[in-house]
Amino acid sequence: MSIRVLVSDHPHRTLALATESHVLLFKHAHTGPNLGVSRSLTASSTVPKDRKNEAPRCMVEFLQKSAVELKGYRTLTTAKGTLGLITLGDDVFVCVATGSREVATVRPGETVQQIVAVEFYCLNRSDYDHAGGYGAGYRDGYREPNPYSNTLFEDEHSYESSETIAEHPFMALKKILSSGSFYYSYNFDLTRRLQDRADADTAVDIASLDEGLLWNSYMINPLLSFRSRLTDEERGALDHSSLLTSVIRGYVGTLTVPQSANPIRSVKSNYPATLTLISRLSSRRAGTRFNARGVDDDGNVANFVETETIFWSPTGICFSYVQVRGSIPIFWESSSTLIPGQQKIQITRSPEATQLSFDRHFDNLIHRYGIVHVVNLLSETKPGEVELTERYNLHMTRNAKMKLEIEDKPEGARSDLIRKTEFDFHEISRVAGGYDGAKQIKPLISESAESFLYFLTQEIEDEVNDAANKGQIHKKIYRPVMVMQQTGIFRTNCLDCLDRTNLVQGIISQTALELFLEHRGEIAHSSNLSVFWMRHSSLWADNGDALSKIYAGTGALKSSFTRHGKMSLGGLMADARKSATRLYVNHFEDKGRQNTTDLLLGRLVGQEEVELFDPVSDWVQERLRSRANDFESSEVIRVWVGTYNLNGKMLRDASELRKWLDVRKGEGFEIVVVGFQEIVELSPQQIMNTDPARRTVWEQAVKATINETSSEKADEQYILLRSGQLVGAALMVFVKSSVLSKIKNVEGAIKKTGVSGLAGNKGAVAIRMEIQGSSVCFVTAHLAAGFGNYDERNRDYQTIITGLRFQRDRKIEDHEVVIWLGDFNYRIGTRPEYARDLIDTYRQANGQGPKAVNALHDLYKDDQLNIQMVAGQTFPFYQEGAIKFLPTYKFDLGNDNYDTSEKARIPAWTDRILYKIDPTKGTDMRQTEYTSVMNLRFSDHRPVYSTFNVQVRVVDEQKKGEILKELYAKRYRQLREDIEDDESDSDADDLVGYQSIAPGLPPASSDRRKWWLDGDKPVASKVVPPEEGMKLNPDRNGNPWREGGEDDWVLVEELETKERNKKEAKSKPEPPAPRKAKIPPSVSIVSNDTNEERNKTPPPKPPAPRGSSSRAATLTQSWNMAGAWPQSRNLISKNPLKSRIAIQKQRSPSSSTHKTISTVLTANQLKRRQHKQRQHRKPTRESNLTKSRTRPRNRFANSIATKSTDIHKRKQQSSSTAHETNTSLLDQITLLHNKWCLSIFYKR
């Protein structure tokens, strides 16, 4: 089905996947939808992202094509379907499959498509539209390979060279999805084997797929959640449109078997048979060869593949046989060397800590497939593989299912649910002179093969009666009937589960087919089976190559023998080339491929799913957070942490460790963490290699000691959870067996810092885990030595904190609780004599009293670690308990004397324990003890230990899910009731999440519905007073939600009284001027200044420029020319906020009315005007003008004041002619002023 990918950038960017009848629309959260009327009941709405750590959000709508206007959209490409949504920072991308091809036909009507091209389109930015090259060079939705990859061609229609296109941020992800290892089907559930879907409908229910085999579950889950909220009709339309695509990873292939080579006789038609191989790679513990090994805490193993062989014949017979492969289900790791075929193998957990996960793995297999027959192909002589085989056998014998009786077992059947066969592939092939020796496994597995049988269906003819035709036969149909079921599987493994495993699995598949043909009696009558088996071998060779490319980066070894049945010279040379290529890929490409795989599966640190919110979901999540106490609780885990620098010495008497490893205090400890430094002498030969022998000895000594002390209290025994070593540094974590089920995802990592990161004499070992819902990380470190090398120690810390990485690129700082322990080598920067005197003072006081406390306090002031932490140079935000013990370095061996050698090193607290907590995630920790053990004297250091109470989060996922369902049901029930009670004729989806805030008010508006436009009516409101004689209060606050203030309604009488009082208040006369003020007759001045300031006589100001219509400027001219300016200026206060000058026109004797001109000017305004007037005066006139201002000229002043009054009256009468009138009068005033100045000048 063809799907068009459309985009519209205006008004907001919108991406559309359009089929012939429907459209799936995507929008980023910060853009508001403008899509017209929705027909969906639960269309997701956008919520602005206003919290810093909130996952990116977007909106999705599924609409009929007729409801969306697509004229403004442009076409990007055509697609086969969408794989889901993925984020990059705050950007949201839609992944679509743009190219695919049909590679298999399992049965008629059941086809499989292989993805060959994908694209990622950003929802909120157009920058990436051309990154990586969309459009050009594509045909049928995917880019054709360029045979001249090193040549850059320009567009034939362009005369200028094209600009360099930036690489798409998901280019690595596009590469892996387009590699040809991903498959999907429109017709059937590709994640389930034929036996599990025998009775299922042909329609694919994308919500019921096996998530363990689904590879785009992280990306498709938000869309599946959106799908679950659609109505049944909409859900069916979405499924029918094939817009949502579910993919598996592995291999799918079909080869046709011509009629001449068909082993089934009585073929009634000329149609060929088909032979299909489907390999489904699990996504639970996915990764590359040296990054994913062994088992995890949930029982999932690396490189787990379910392979199904399907043979369909035109006679209606369908045969299916399933087998699995997977890594050895114990905790182990390996590292590649520069020699092909050699690996360093390390078992990381003790048998006690492994058994639980081992049992979970086989429990899952038994529950899913039935009886399990293990075929182990590891070598019995090769180092590393021998240890794995021994541990494998140990766990097999401890598994209870090995001897579990089967009820109603047939006579002669074996009674165990787990069987095991050891088959040293390399040794047998060497003895047999080639890989033909692998066929010797057939007798070893024949008994189980016959008991497991296979899945078989047969089509039968059935008659359907037509009720409308009075029971007469209407038509005949053929329906499959299950004849036989497979009751067990073979689980095959080698070291990598690639080359040897694929060859042996091909033999097992052939054995099952031969058994099927033998049961039908076809084997003796088939004369041309060689063509059939050749096609079978070819499929298995292609299968081995495909799976090997995913896990190791190259095709499978021995594929030449698998394909042709013999090993040729060309096959040997091909295997040598593949081995060399693997060496390169494993060293330089595996880390990047692992990160890309984790990105696809959503397992990188901090990676979150895209959230599609609808109003209902927002309400539910808010209520769920408020009910967190119903499904969340806390649990206190007691942890003992200790560190000891052994100085390369071995303990003669293990009982001495009891002085330090005393775990009997209080109620005991659930977790014991022990860190050692210098467990071997750091010689030049040792620092480049890690010898695990010494670590093993100390592991046994520590385990025996802590179990001995716990046995005295009849307590549980401790088991070794995991250990790690870097030359001389070692870290061991022991836990009680009862706590083991609460711990998962245990990982280890190391980081070298010696000799610029090349040597392991200095560095760190870290172990991380998840305890219930909290993440915890323990780090033991041995930093650079030397008194003055604190800068180098700071750099070592930075190197460790930034360079040490766990799986999925997880860092130390990504954990909620981090505890550092070890020999940090920070010294005390003081004189040796002063330090020893303080220590002697402490010892003389027996460590008690103020003297001892003050001595340690004075010594701690010069501690380098404390100084560097305070300065922020190292261990930022870490804490350390109060140090109440003597320095732990450096002692003479066997006594308590500090260094008496020639070097006489200054005593120092080199051995420390620091910790940091992130309480924002619900985890807390409290340190209960921090001390040292001074009577353990076989090293030049003294051991230190600390105890903690860690409060971890416990989440009941089952209870949480129940509450979630309850809240959703409650919310939808409320909405339906509101919709039924609502009398307005509106779409149901417009009311979802938008209820009225008060009875009688309409629901709140949505993006598609506005209540004020309901029924195409204009906006109107009907307000009824609560009582008669009341009106709206004009003095009420404009914000109706603000508390206090005026009432909304008031009585008419009260309102009239308020208005009358306001008018009276406005009509009050102004108070008269003070009587004692000495001012001219025409001016009243009020000032707070002193008399001294009044005697100052600044120069007068010239008149304002002509044409000014400002009333203040006009009045200022009047004051200057009236002779009032010199005195008014003298009366201005120093404080401009307190000074005011009021000028009033006195009552004229001949006038019957009182005319008043008033204004208020600040002192700053008057000073500015005075400054401007000074700039226009001539120096020759300054003295004369200053003297003339001492005496007022009443004749000219009265004339000028009268003119100013006329200006004011005319301006009030007509605003249209005010400017012209003022201009003419100002000219007259200016003329009078000039005459007045000239008369004074000539008179003087």
Automatic annotation (TrEMBL):
Protein's cellular compartments: Cytoplasm
Composition skew (Polar residues), residue ranges: 1145-1165
Any one GO MF annotation of this record: phosphatidylinositol-3,5-bisphosphate 5-phosphatase activity
Domain SAC: 173-553
SUPFAM superfamilies: DNase I-like
The keyword Transport is annotated on this UniProt entry: yes
Signal peptide location: none
Stated family: Belongs to the synaptojanin family.
Protein name: phosphoinositide 5-phosphatase
Organism: Lithohypha guttulata
Gene: syj1
